[in-house]
Amino acid sequence: MSGKGTILVVEDALGEAVSIRILTSLGIAVSQRLGLKGKGYLQNKADSLNRTAKGFPVFMLADQDAPNPCPPRLIQSWIKGRQHPHFFLRVAVMEVESWIMADRRGVADLLAIPLSRIPRDTDTIPHPKEFLVALARRSRKAGLREELVPRPGATSTVGPEYNSRLGEFVRSDWNIRRASAASNSLKRTIDRLRTFRAT
Fold first, then answer.
1. Is residue 1 situated within a structural domain?
2. Fewer CB within 10 Å of terminal CB in the chain, N or C?
3. By residue range, what is the domain housing residue 87?
């Protein structure tokens, strides 16, 4: 993949930040970015991007969101026919926040909370985004609480600076080595990327 780079397709800004950090850490360039329109966009585009991968590598990251379907079945339901080896579709279990929290020490320091509040296996957290916001509510940093936690009466489930603040953390402080030790789905993605090469 490192020769030509890859087309990157993601649900949202946070998924984009995580994907770019992973890809660049492995020396894989991003030549084009698509998405940022939610999971429905990815589902609608998956089959055509699978065909695109015949001529150019594609990396797509989606959230699992719910226990069913499991990642392999989700992928199969999005693609008609055989998945091209250069269409690299990965699923974060359950959401990309679980991969971020997998750097337990980094997130504990960011939120100023005890490390023990973050599970050792972050893939087991049923609703990672809600869990992360709940952790932020207990942060000793008032400014960070204001950024990540929704204000009283707000319709949003996250704070006004949620994506930008966590994106900044991912770009500057997220430790991928520590994170892959606490998230099997992240580790599988990284291991697969190490063997994925463009022709």
1. no
2. C
3. 6-96+181-195
113-152 residue pLDDT tens? 999 999 999 999 999 999 999 999 999 999 999 999 999 9
Same domain, 12 and 89: yes
Q: Are residues 58 and 111 in the same domain?
A: no
Are 51 and 74 part of one and the same domain? yes
